[in-house]
Structure to design on (241 residues):
C-alpha cells in the first residue's frame, strides 16, 4: 500500500512539473529540455538579429508589417543574421515570394577567407529560395541545385516537391543533426544528405565553395536571411536546439 502511494505521489509530482514547464513556455510543446524558441514572430524579436554591416537591425530595406518580416525590393537592406550561433537544430518558418525573387536561409554561417578573392566572407550552407516559375528570367539560374529547397549548388531537391504559387505562403523546415542535413518544403522531405560523406565533400570541391578551406567542416554557425535585391516575406521563424 505504501509503495502504491509513493508511486502515485511521484506521478503527480512529475505531471505537475510537466504542466508548469508547459505553461512557463507559453504553451509551446518541448522535446526533452529543448523548447521551441522564437527567432521572429513580432517586432520585438528583431532583437535576435543584426545586420552583417553593423551591429543594429537595419532601419532601411527591412519592413515589419502585420508581424511579417519583409525584405523590400531594391532598398539594399543587406543580409541579416542571428546574434548567436547554433549547432544541431531544427528551424521552421514561412515565406512568401515575389516574381523573380532570389533569396535564401543560410546556416552554419562563419566568416572564412576566400582564397580566390583574397578576402574573408560570410558563408555557409543555404536553403535556396528562388522563383522557380520564372527561372529562365533569372541570371545565373543553372539547374536544380539552384532551385528552391536545394542546399544551394550542392544538393538538388527531389523532383516531386511542391512549391506554392507566387504570393502564397510556403513553409520550410531545416534539420541538422550530427552532420545529417534534411530540408522540408510544405511538409514534404525534399533533401536528406550526410554532409560528412566523401560524396558530399566532392560536391563542395566541384563548386565555388572549394575556395573556402573550412567550408563544410563547421559544426556551428549563425543563421542568415539573404538580401538579393528582391522582395520576400518571412514570418513565424522558430528554432529548437
Amino acid at each position: 500500500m505504501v509503495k502504491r502511494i509513493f508511486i502515485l505521489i511521484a506521478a503527480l509530482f512529475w505531471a505537475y512539473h510537466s504542466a508548469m514547464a508547459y505553461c512557463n513556455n507559453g504553451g509551446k510543446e518541448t522535446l526533452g529540455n529543448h523548447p521551441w524558441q522564437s527567432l521572429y514572430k513580432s517586432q520585438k524579436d528583431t532583437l535576435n538579429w543584426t545586420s552583417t554591416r553593423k551591429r543594429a537591425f537595419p532601419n532601411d530595406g527591412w519592413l515589419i508589417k502585420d508581424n511579417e518580416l519583409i525584405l523590400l525590393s531594391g532598398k539594399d537592406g543587406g543580409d541579416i543574421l542571428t546574434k548567436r550561433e547554433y549547432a544541431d537544430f531544427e528551424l521552421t518558418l514561412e515565406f512568401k515570394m515575389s516574381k523573380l525573387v532570389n533569396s535564401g536561409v543560410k546556416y552554419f554561417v562563419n566568416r572564412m577567407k576566400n582564397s580566390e578573392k583574397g578576402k574573408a566572407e560570410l558563408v555557409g550552407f543555404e536553403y535556396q529560395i528562388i522563383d522557380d516559375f520564372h527561372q529562365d528570367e533569372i541570371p545565373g539560374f543553372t539547374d536544380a541545385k539552384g532551385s528552391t529547397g536545394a542546399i544551394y549548388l550542392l544538393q538538388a531537391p527531389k523532383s516531386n516537391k511542391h512549391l506554392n504559387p507566387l504570393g502564397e505562403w510556403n513553409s520550410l523546415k531545416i534539420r541538422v543533426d550530427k552532420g545529417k542535413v534534411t530540408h522540408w518544403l510544405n511538409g514534404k522531405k525534399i533533401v536528406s544528405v550526410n554532409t560528412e560523406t566523401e560524396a558530399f565533400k566532392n560536391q563542395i570541391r566541384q563548386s565555388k565553395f572549394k575556395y573556402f578551406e573550412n567550408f563544410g567542416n563547421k559544426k556551428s554557425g549563425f543563421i542568415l536571411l539573404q538580401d538579393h535585391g528582391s522582395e520576400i516575406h518571412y514570418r513565424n521563424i522558430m528554432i529548437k536546439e
Residues 1-28 form one domain.
